[in-house]
Amino acid sequence: MTAAPHAGLDAALLRAAPAEYDAILLASFGGPEGQDDVIPFLRNVTRGRGIPDERLEEVSHHYRANGGISPINAQNRALKAALEAELAARSIKLPVLWGNRNWDPYIPAVLQEAYDAGHRRLLMVTTSAYSCYSSDRQYREDIGMALASTGLDGKLAVDKVRQYFDHPGFVRPFLEGTAVSLAKVRAELAAAGTPEAPVHVLFSTHSIPTRDAEAAGRSDDEPRTFEGGSAYVAQHLAVARTVMAAVEPAAVEGADWSLVYQSRSGAPHVPWLEPDINDAIADLAAAGTKGIVVVPLGFVSDHMEVVWDLDTEAAETCAELGLAFDRAPTPGTHPLFVSGLVDLVCERTVANHIADRPAMTDLGPWYDIAPAGDSRNFRGEKPAIAEHGSTVGLAPGVAALSEGALARGGSATHV
């Protein structure tokens, strides 16, 4: 289905005019690829926070246990190859570049290489589907700072596709995976002689600071309210409901669900989104639940926070409590997901243009152009790329931004 525009948000913000692009930039978080990389990688992630190496070593155990290797880079190489194959199958001649925020290949170097190769306008696809600072605005800040540091501001333009939390290409792989995992857990309970035992589906996503969550989806000009107090929470809840409603009724009969959080990394005194998945599992077990299905709804691929926090820690919690457990897969390189990402590219291109903007919840389709104040950076203002710089939605008296221009976070421009 294609949903109606957001209530309380100027519909003109939803779309950017299609444009000519030279290449696609696949942007991701990055991760270490050996034991010697772990501490330098964690320094990159925590840069500016003054965290000593001794503390970083204390939190590196999940990387150390995996040989110092995060799965994310290999997964991004596979996704890049899958995107290239899908583009070729559609005869779309856009090369796919890949850059990371926190590890090689670093975004500034990739932008410089793109410019040196003759590219002048890139369209960025990130490996983050939802709306919050770290999954949207921070990518735009990283591009903005990279353009400034390389001297490419005004020479190389970078735009970004919309957040795709409810795009069919992202959601439908979770539909399939949830149904399969429910069947596995019910089969395990049946084998144990308790086929009618209660089963609970936990939709899990990354916890973030409550203040960051509350800033997601905001507009300085048109304040909006969201279920759960933020667009980040509301988007996850909406997608979870969509998944549960679309799975075969017989599969979900007798199964309840809830949204939980994982991978908290902040100071104990700072409020983050709760409940933690392991606390939720313990509470469910105490209430009589016998089977747990974990759906990593907030994640694109099986990176470290999936294979450690879910496949290791959450699975161990279930085992200790005697609960049947299964974890649904992330989209990864599922053909529907890969095809959906290419569709998102085609929404923004002149050639092979797709005018329709599909969305599987009534929150979407999310906007191309971020309104002022959305997912504000509370840690300090940084330059960020404008979302398809134009006069659309600018406050009165604010000059239009050139493509690829920098805008200061929190200004009246689209940042």
Please summarize what this structure is.
With 415 residues, the protein is α/β, with parallel strands linked by helices. It has two domains: 11-165 and 336-408, 3-Layer(aba) Sandwich (Rossmann fold), CATH 3.40.50; 168-327, Rossmann fold (3-Layer(aba) Sandwich), CATH 3.40.50. The chain has helices spanning 38-45, 53-58, 61-64, 72-89, 107-116, 133-150, 168-191, 210-215, 231-246, 249-252, 277-286, 304-307, 309-320, 335-348; strands at 23-28, 96-100, 121-126, 157-160, 199-206, 255-262, 291-295, 324-327, 383-385, 406-408.
The biggest beta sheet is recorded as: 4 strands, parallel
CATH class of the largest domain: Alpha Beta
Strand-residue proportion: 5-15%
N-to-C series of helices and strands: EHHHHEHEHEHEHHHEHEHHEHEE
Oligomeric state, counting identical vs distinct chains: single chain
Mean model confidence by pLDDT: 87
The total number of structural domains is 2
CATH architecture of the largest domain: 3-Layer(aba) Sandwich
Count of helix runs? 14
What is the CA-based Rg, rounded? Answer: 21 Å
- Tally of strands: 10
Shape: globular
Approximately how much helix is present in the residues? 25-40%
Structural class: alpha/beta
Low-confidence stretches: 1-8, 387-415
Distance between the termini: 29 Å
- Tell me the strand order in the biggest sheet: 2-1-3-4
User: What would the CATH topology of the largest domain be?
Assistant: Rossmann fold
Task: Describe the secondary-structure layout.
Elements: E1 23-28, H1 38-45, H2 53-58, H3 61-64, H4 72-89, E2 96-100, H5 107-116, E3 121-126, H6 133-150, E4 157-160, H7 168-191, E5 199-206, H8 210-215, H9 231-246, H10 249-252, E6 255-262, H11 277-286, E7 291-295, H12 304-307, H13 309-320, E8 324-327, H14 335-348, E9 383-385, E10 406-408
Parallel strand pairs: 1-2, 1-3, 3-4, 5-6, 5-7, 7-8
Antiparallel strand pairs: 9-10
Helix pairs in contact: 4-14, 5-6, 7-9, 7-14, 11-13
